Amino acid sequence: MTRILIYGSAALLALAATPAAVRAQVYPERLAITMKARTAVEARAYQRRSRDDNREEQTEHTTKTVKLGADGALMLGNIAGDITVTRGGGSEATIEIVKTARARTPEEAKEMLALVPVEITERNGRVEVKTRYPDGDEQRRNNRRNINVSVAYTVSAPAGTHLSVNSISGSIKVTDIKGDISANSISGDLRLTGAGRISSAKTISGMVEITETQADGPVAGSSVSGDVVFRRVTARRIDGSSVSGNIRLDEVQSDRVSAQTTSGNASFSGPLARNGRYELNAFSGEVRVAITGNIGFEVEANSFSGEIRTDLPITTRGGADRRGRQKTLTGTYGDGAAVLDLTTFSGSIVISKR
Q1: Confidence class of residue 52 from pLDDT cuts 50, 70 and 90?
Q2: Which residues have CB under 8 Å from 38's CB, separation 6+?
Q3: What percent of the chain has pLDDT over 90?
Q4: Residue 40 has what DSSP assignment?
Q5: Over the range 201-234, which residues count as b (16 or more CB within 10 Å of their CB) and which as e?
Q6: CB-based contacts of 177: which residues, under 8 Å, 6+ apart?
Q7: pLDDT for 141-165, tens place per residue?
């Protein structure tokens, strides 16, 4: 099996810490500020913009066709600029590259375009695409302090392509790719539609949206500062996490669901699986569950400073505060075949039938 790989900056390694950060739920505002500051430093290192100094714009368009095979591997790494990957036909991938430079004069902008090459390496069905920016020594040799160049990629690849896409500052959109997908960004939204396998979908500052996907394995998405949305997703396991953002699971089907957010709401809608387990946790936000189908459940729900509400005939065991508000709920609905584990510190919990 061949693979296509796209390399990004080493700064993307910071993304690996995201799940632990979410689980920690300790001083979330400090963590979010730290990650945002890191993002800002990375972006400024490559793209320093000035409204007064960057009035003129020059672009360069290039198209490259590479051989991948039916299940090749593509790795694409970018610093600044959006990446779009869609399903194509045949065994080749087409890569459209648009470089845009901004400077005080057209001549200066054109010179900058040459300082940011795109390197493409083909090797036995494995393709590596990388945007390379000049380092400090190169900038000094070319008498350039600021390199204001962005690179946008539009890729058409075979459906079975194994895809790894990394970006520091830019959004990533992938549509109808059935091979394994890994998509990571420091500052940008991720939108994955019609996927077959998703091994990673992470951003620090941006939204993660996974839609219309039927995966034969687990699906996970995480953000430090942004919403995480799963819509019409079917997978064995679904994991969503955010430090500062909502977690929404709309019309999903899965045996195992885990949704965690520190500052935001967590919601689930869809059928329950027999022997399935559904864990939704929010530190500062509301938890909502809207169930379809006929599978019953056992529920354990806890809210410290909110209340628990349900319109279902649950055989309950729980406690209320002095005002009569339900704060904890343990009980069974129907055949009790699934398990709901719902927790929030500051917010209400709502369970309903849809």
Answers
A1: very low
A2: 11, 14, 186, 204
A3: 68
A4: H
A5: bbbbbbbbbbbebebeeebbbbbbbbbbbbbebb
A6: 85, 86, 87, 157, 159, 161, 163, 194, 195, 196
A7: 655 567 889 999 999 999 999 999 9
| DSSP labels, 228-274 | EEEEEEE-SEEEEEEEES-EEEES-B-SEEEEEEEES-EEEEEEPPT
Q: Flag the least confident range among 20-24, 39-43, 275-279, 323-327.
A: 20-24
Nearest to 231 by CA among 261, 195, 199, 200: 195
Q: Are strands 315-320 and 326-333 parallel, antiparallel or unpaired?
A: antiparallel
* Contacts with 45 (C-beta within 8 Å, 6 or more apart), sequence order: none
Concatenating the DSSP letter of every residue in 94-142 gives EEEEEEEEEESSHHHHHHHHHHS-EEEEEETTEEEEEE----HHHHHHT
Do 126 and 113 touch, CB atoms closer than 8 A? no
CA dihedral 241, 247, 253, 255 (to 10 degrees): 40
**Adjacent-strand bridge partners of 1:** none
* Averaged pLDDT of the chain: 84
What's the half-sphere exposure (Cβ side, CA atoms, 13 Å) at 290? 9
3-class secondary-structure state, position 327:
strand
Q: What does the alpha-carbon distance between residue 310 and residue 350 come to, in Å, rounded to a whole number?
A: 6
- At residue 31, the 3 state secondary structure works out as helix
236-258 confidence digits (pLDDT tens): 999 999 999 999 999 999 999 99
Average pLDDT (193-199) is: 94
What pLDDT was estimated at residue 216? Answer: 84
Which of 277, 286, 240, 233 lies closest to 255 in space, CA to CA?
Answer: 277
The token pair that represents 29 in the structure block: 């505002």
